[in-house]
């Protein structure tokens, strides 16, 4: 039975472990590596190790960082009255891209999902209430979890945790997405847009 | 302006160099790497380097191999009367999977493509005619290039090179693919299937 040389088979198998990479893509990538310049392959291998080694979670907000505390937590320019709770570091990047939010963050690294057996103890919530109390200027906690069952459950849980704290707890608005088409909006989106309707300023 | 930590940005940029990997996929893969176990990341990095270092082209057939000559060229069990010319090592794997072919190979690592400025000198054809003369038992050269403009041009070129040699030159049949649907076959496939029709054995 014919098979590829051992080190190629191994490379394909290890590429296949990556999320969203099936056998065909892994094979295509592996063949590309074989024909790529040696120093380019070395650069990729080094980057994998370096990123994995250097990047850690900020001990305050748990966002990814290469220094602790992270640049957002330690910046004097951030508004310490607001703290935004998000699922992942990618959500921090998305929020930052809006250029509208200048407050702090708290990254959960997951959402509560009873179906997948993920409870609040799996998220970065251990010292969350303590942190909220310690942020002296804090006035508002914005829960920015996904508008999904898991995001809703997580928002609800965090809301209850903060019930007795002296902060306003808010959640991102849900409704029609910009550029969307009402005709094609699903019922849940549409009914949330309806119940969240706001007064049109027409005076 | 917010941006990811340096080593993460670098990893994303280097993953983006891979074929078919855009910014979104590179970001997704990089975040996976950050959360992957350290030894797993090391295994992947090692595999990249090892495959690139160990795998070479067989000096006889130019297929990928970790020993020279490769296992097919040096096997006493292969039928040395037949030699199959293919574009790439992946085509060797495809031919071997059929379990029908037990001959030798010659891997071109490309196809002639005037539009992309790829001429025969870019392919592994330097010593091809010499090799054909040296294979003493050789009776037939099967050209198994793709049924495409480039595959046709390459087959034509190789055919002319072998014009004066004492071997039969054949090419893989073109026609309807197994399980295909005549109604949806394109005109070229259908007209090739028609001109390549064979007598039905109904006696």
Distance between the termini of chain A: 80 Å
Give the averaged pLDDT of chain A, no decimals. Answer: 93
How many strands in all of chain A? Answer: 6
Sheet-strand content of chain A, in percent, reads: 5-15%
Q: Which structural class do you get from the secondary structure elements of chain A?
A: alpha/beta
Function (chains A, B): May play a role in DNA repair. It seems to be involved in an RecBC-independent recombinational process of DNA repair. It may act with RecF and RecO.
Pfam family, one (chains A, B): RecR_ZnF
GO molecular function (chains A, B): DNA binding; zinc ion binding
Protein name (chains A, B): Recombination protein RecR
What does this structure look like?
Chain A has 203 residues and is of the alpha/beta class. Chain A has 2 domains: 6-54, Orthogonal Bundle (Helicase, Ruva Protein, domain 3), CATH 1.10.8.420; 77-171, Dna Topoisomerase Vi A Subunit, Chain: A, domain 2 (3-Layer(aba) Sandwich). Chain A has 8 helices and 6 strands. Chain A has helices at residues 6-16, 23-35, 38-54, 71-74, 89-98, 128-134, 149-161, 187-195; strands at 56-57, 64-65, 82-86, 104-107, 140-143, 168-171. In chain A, the strands form 2 sheets. The first copy, chain A, has a 4-stranded parallel beta sheet. A two-stranded antiparallel ribbon of chain A has the order 1-2. In chain A, helix 1 (6-16) crosses helix 2 (23-35). The longest helix of chain A has 17 residues, at 38-54. Chain A starts with 5 loop residues before the first helix and ends in an 8-residue tail after the last helix. The mean pLDDT of chain A is 93. At the A-B interface, helix 1, helix 2, helix 3, strand 2 and helix 5 of A face helix 1, helix 2, helix 3, strand 2 and helix 5 of B. Chains A, B: A zinc finger (C4-type) spans 58-73. Chains A, B: May play a role in DNA repair. It seems to be involved in an RecBC-independent recombinational process of DNA repair. It may act with RecF and RecO. Chains A, B: Keywords: DNA damage, DNA recombination, DNA repair, Metal-binding, Zinc, Zinc-finger.
């Amino acid at each position: 039975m014919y098979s590829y040389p051992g080190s190629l088979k191994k490379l394909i198998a290890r590429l296949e472990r990556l999320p969203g990479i099936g056998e065909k893509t892994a094979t295509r990538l592996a063949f590309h590596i074989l024909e790529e310049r040696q120093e380019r392959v070395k650069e990729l291998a080094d980057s994998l190790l370096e990123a994995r080694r250097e990047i850690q979670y900020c001990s305050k907000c748990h966002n990814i960082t290469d220094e602790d505390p992270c640049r957002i937590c330690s910046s004097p320019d951030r508004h310490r009255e607001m703290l935004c709770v998000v699922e992942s570091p990618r959500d921090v990047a998305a929020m930052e891209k809006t250029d509208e939010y200048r407050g702090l963050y708290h990254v959960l690294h997951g959402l509560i999902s009873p179906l997948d057996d993920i409870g609040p103890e799996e998220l970065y919530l251990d010292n969350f209430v303590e942190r909220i109390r310690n942020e002296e200027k804090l006035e508002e906690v914005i829960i920015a979890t996904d508008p999904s069952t898991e995001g809703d459950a997580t928002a609800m849980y965090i809301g209850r945790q903060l019930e007795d704290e002296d902060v306003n707890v808010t959640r991102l608005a849900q409704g029609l997405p910009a550029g969307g088409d009402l005709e094609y909006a699903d019922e849940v989106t549409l009914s949330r847009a309806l119940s969240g309707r706001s007064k049109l300023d027409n005076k």
